[in-house]
TrEMBL record:
CDD domains noted in UniProt: NAT_SF (cd04301)
One Pfam entry name: Acetyltransf_8
Keywords carried by this UniProt record: Antibiotic resistance
Protein name according to UniProt: Acetyltransferase
PROSITE patterns linked: GNAT
Length: 180
C-alpha cells in the first residue's frame, strides 16, 4: 500500500491490474478526457503503455471502500518537461501526476478531491516534492474545479499541448507549491 486516507487506498500497480486498465480505457466516458475516445486500449496496448520496465512512471490503483475504481501515476519531471513548462533544471524536486476514476458510478462524490489531496501530501512528505504539477485540458472543467479545491493554481496556458481525438488541445499548467 502506498498510502491510505480513510476509505481511500492507493496501491502500486500490479500485473494482474491490466484487465482493469483495459476495461476503463475502453470506456468512452473515461476516454473523453483521458487518452481520447478514438484511442481505446486493449490488453496488449495496456501492457505496452503501462508495464514498461524502463519507464520512470509510478503507476498505482485507486481503491475506495475495497473496490478498485481508478488509476493514478506520479513521476519526477525530467529536464525536457521542466524546460517545456519553464522550470529551471535541478533547482527543486518537481513531480507530475495524472489520474482518472475509471468507474463512472464513483464520479461526483468527492473521491477525486480526496485522492489528489492525499497524493500531493504523499509526494511532499515522502518524496520531498517542492512542487506538484499537472496539465489538464482547458475544457476539463470538472477536473479543474477538483484541482483548485486541492490548492492547485493555474500557472500558464499550454497552447495545442495534447493530441486528443485528432486535434491538438490547449491545456493549463497547474501547480501546487509546498507551503514552507
Amino acid at each position: 500500500m502506498l498510502f491510505n486516507n480513510g476509505r481511500l487506498n492507493v496501491r502500486k500497480l500490479e500485473k494482474k491490474d491490466n484487465y482493469l486498465l483495459a476495461k476503463w480505457l475502453s470506456d468512452p466516458r473515461v476516454l473523453e478526457f483521458y487518452e481520447g475516445r478514438d484511442n481505446p486500449f486493449d490488453l496488449e496496448k495496456v501492457n505496452t503503455a503501462f508495464y514498461n520496465p524502463n519507464d520512470d512512471v509510478n503507476g498505482c490503483i485507486i481503491e475506495f471502500e475495497g473496490v478498485d475504481i481508478g488509476y493514478i501515476q506520479y513521476y519526477e519531471l525530467d529536464d525536457e518537461t521542466r524546460e517545456t513548462y519553464g522550470y529551471p533544471k535541478n533547482t527543486e524536486v518537481i513531480y507530475g501526476i495524472d489520474q482518472f476514476i475509471g468507474e463512472p458510478a464513483y464520479w461526483n462524490k468527492g473521491i477525486g478531491t480526496i485522492l489528489v489531496h492525499s497524493m500531493v501530501e504523499y509526494l511532499i512528505i515522502e518524496k520531498h516534492a517542492g512542487l506538484v504539477v499537472m496539465d489538464p485540458q482547458v475544457r476539463n472543467e470538472r477536473a479543474l474545479k477538483c484541482y483548485e479545491k486541492c490548492g492547485f493554481r493555474k500557472v500558464k496556458l499550454l497552447p495545442k499541448n495534447e493530441l486528443h481525438e485528432g486535434e491538438y488541445r490547449d491545456c493549463w499548467l497547474i501547480e501546487y507549491r509546498r507551503k514552507l
